[in-house]
Amino acid sequence: MTILEMTAAHTAAVAQLEARCFADPWSEASVAGELDNPLSLWLVAVDGGGRLLGYAGSQAVLDAADVMNVAVAPEARRQGVARALLEALEARLRARGVASLSLEVRPSNGPALALYESLGFTEAGRRPGYYRNPREDAWILRKEWKL
Asked: What's the farthest any 2 CA atoms get from each other in the chain?
């Protein structure tokens, strides 16, 4: 597995994976738009044949970043793809002077919560009714580090 910064060559596959994984997916145009956003950093994980295994996207303002989306292909789950993406994302954000990373997660998403906790994220708040399809609150998780 290789972790790369997302390019235009990846956007169609990212959008397809987005549609497979989420009830309210980003469109291919929205994903592609992140390439032109100076606040954005999106990473992809690909296998030896260049097949997309997963992706993680973020936006940073000053020294704080938010994870926009993380997804792993169902057939590649439980193989360390999300962990590798998030660790690489943190390392690259640190190199850019970012000192914290936040994200929202469904409280019903046990595997994601376990991963985020193992990476050092802690609960920072809640957003009532944040998710649709199905309707659910979001837990806001945050991780901070010293530069």
From this structure: 42
- Three-state DSSP class for residue 11: helix
Sheet strand arrangement including 2-5:
2-5, 40-46, 52-61, 64-72, 100-105, 136-144, 122-131
- Would you tell me how many other CB atoms lie within 10 Å of the CB of residue 49? 5
Number of helices (H), then strands (E), belonging to the chain: the values are: 4, 7
pLDDT in tens, 87-131: 999 999 999 999 999 999 999 999 999 999 999 999 999 999 998
Instruction: Please confirm, yes or no, whether 130 is among the known catalytic residues.
Output: no
CA distance 24 to 135: 12
Of the candidates 28, 87, 104, 123, the residue annotated as catalytic is 104
Q: State what percent of residues in the chain have pLDDT above 90.
A: 94
Can you tell me the distance from the alpha carbon of 82 to that of 53, in angstroms, rounded to the nearest whole number? Answer: 9
Is 116 a catalytic site residue? yes
pLDDT of residue 147: 81
Q: Residue 13 CA to chain centroid, in angstroms?
A: 15
- Name the active-site residue from 18, 55, 90, 116: 116
